[in-house]
Specification:
By secondary structure, this protein is an alpha/beta fold. The chain is built from 18 helices and 10 strands. Helix 7 packs across helix 8. It is found in: Cell membrane.
């Protein structure tokens, strides 16, 4: 029923606006076709069908085409273009109907729209898109998500959820510097099997052995949708707590929002976000301002930085973080860095013959090129870990370093060939003070902030080094 009511709204609404009945009927059919084609492409790459919040990201397809169009493929893109061109031709060819007919279409729209809202609210939805679309049908589930997700009730629910963040109150009692690195698509690929070399994880392994805590990390994203893991980490909120906002939480951040940055800000910290890409991507510039970051160092602050492929590499991000610490002037720093190097699409990268040998034993077959390219970037992330920990070991000011992967990479073809589907990334929380033994805890990304709070205050040894005088540092 919702499927038909939603189609009626689209068709009648388009007729009321354009006065062209055949064109309007065609638009409704083309719309379903476009949503189906894009949804299938998204599911093939990211294991998730199209959801309502993807519409708000539509403009990014044109401003950042490399991040989206390659996953669609030339064939599907051609089908979409043909459909759009046919719709434009139909609009030009068809003469507009009389005003009376357009008025009737307006009445139909106004009748069917409240029906859609009522039907959407009555559907029993799990907010697991694939399950809901199997249960209710693709278009009906998509329409229900759109109607419910964009409602004022959902915005109010998000505001209430944000107020329950564990970082909505309090401030640090001690003031070590805190660095958080969200590493793009990072996970321990050795879980795929013995064919993956340990060489790309040398510094990662060392940091884990010396860490306060480390382990596998449950994240609310797979292959993409970085901002979901990002928001969970910064707010301490789970997907069930966010409701429909789980799919694109920054879309709902329209006012002050509790976050880990706000917690540190109340303690006198300088709070800085670092991302070597465009600040408006995912709406981060607006969202981070509401989430209590004092400044946002985006791609404009990486002028001249070395690139790995199309993106700024991980090592320049490490250098930027070190520069922030060196310029802190005794004011504690909380820096949240989001890397970009390993973003992909991996299948667009060039892999040389023999390049796989130092990274895995699967060979140079085309099936494994994405894995080779991926591990090449992991090596640079590992060098980033090495550079940061080497600097912090020599630094006298106490510092906590949290490093984690936002999601596993979009390597569906590799995972299918290996008959596996990893879902967890990895993390460690490392300190340049205390005696830590790499305690393993497999946790959710939303708990990392609370673990950082514990790492700041739990010193295992006390000596004359200022790195271990945490208990005596002023708040």
């Amino acid at each position: 029923m919702l499927h038909l009511a939603a189609l009626a709204v689209v068709t009648a609404g388009c007729f009321a606006l354009t006065g062209r009945p055949l064109f309007s009927a065609g638009v409704a059919q083309v719309l379903i076709g476009v949503l189906a084609v894009v949804g299938n492409a998204k599911y093939a790459s990211l294991r998730e069908p199209l959801v309502f919040s993807d519409l708000s990201l539509f403009s990014q397809v044109f401003s950042h085409p490399r991040l989206y169009l390659p996953f669609l493929g030339a064939g599907k893109l051609a089908i979409l273009l043909v459909g759009i061109m046919a719709a434009v031709a139909a609009f030009i060819a068809e003469k507009p109907a009389a005003l009376g007919q357009r008025a009737a279409a307006t009445v139909v729209t106004l009748i069917c729209l409240p029906m859609c809202i009522a039907l959407a609210r009555r559907l029993t939805l799990t907010l697991q898109p694939y399950s809901d679309q199997c249960q209710c049908g693709f278009f009906a589930a998509f329409a229900a998500y759109l109607i419910n997700g964009m409602s004022s009730a959902q915005q109010r629910a998000f505001t209430r959820a944000a107020a329950t963040s564990p970082f909505s109150f309090g401030r640090p009692d001690v003031q070590p510097d805190v660095i958080v690195v969200q590493s793009e698509s990072y996970f321990d690929a050795r879980r795929l099997g013995k064919y993956v070399s340990g060489a790309p994880y040398e510094h990662f392994d060392c940091a884990r052995r010396e860490s306060f805590e480390q382990g596998e990390l449950a994240v609310p994203a797979w292959g993409a949708n970085t901002m979901r893991s990002e928001f969970a980490m910064l707010t301490g909120l789970t997907s069930p707590e966010l409701g429909y906002a789980r799919f694109y939480p920054y879309m709902f951040v329209r006012r002050a929002c509790a976050s880990l940055a706000g917690y540190f800000s109340r303690g006198g910290y300088r709070t800085v976000a670092v991302h070597p890409y465009y600040a408006n991507f995912f709406g981060r510039r607006r969202a981070f301002a509401h989430m209590h970051f004092d400044s946002f160092l985006d791609i404009e602050h990486f002028d001249g930085a070395s690139r790995v492929g199309p993106y700024v590499g991980d090592l320049p991000v490490a250098d930027k973080l070190i520069a922030l610490l060196q310029a802190s002037d005794d004011k504690p720093v909380f820096a949240f860095a989001i890397t970009m190097e390993n973003h992909g699409p991996l299948h667009l990268e060039t892999v040389s013959p023999g390049e796989a040998a130092s990274r895995h034993t699967l060979g140079d077959d085309v099936r494994w090129r994405d894995l080779t390219a991926y591990l090449r970037h992991v090596e640079n992330a590992d060098a980033m870990i090495g550079r940061l920990t080497a600097y912090l070991r020599e630094r006298k000011r106490p510092t906590v370093l949290c490093f984690y992967g936002d999601h596993v990479p979009a390597m569906s073809s590799v995972f299918d060939a290996l008959e596996t589907e990893p879902t967890r990334s990895d993390y460690f929380i490392w300190r340049n003070f205390g005696n830590d033994l790499g305690t393993r805890r497999d946790v959710g990304v939303e708990t990392l902030g609370s673990t950082i709070q514990r790492a700041m205050t739990h010193a295992d040894r006390v000596d004359t080094d200022s790195r271990n005088k945490l208990q005596q540092m002023p708040a």
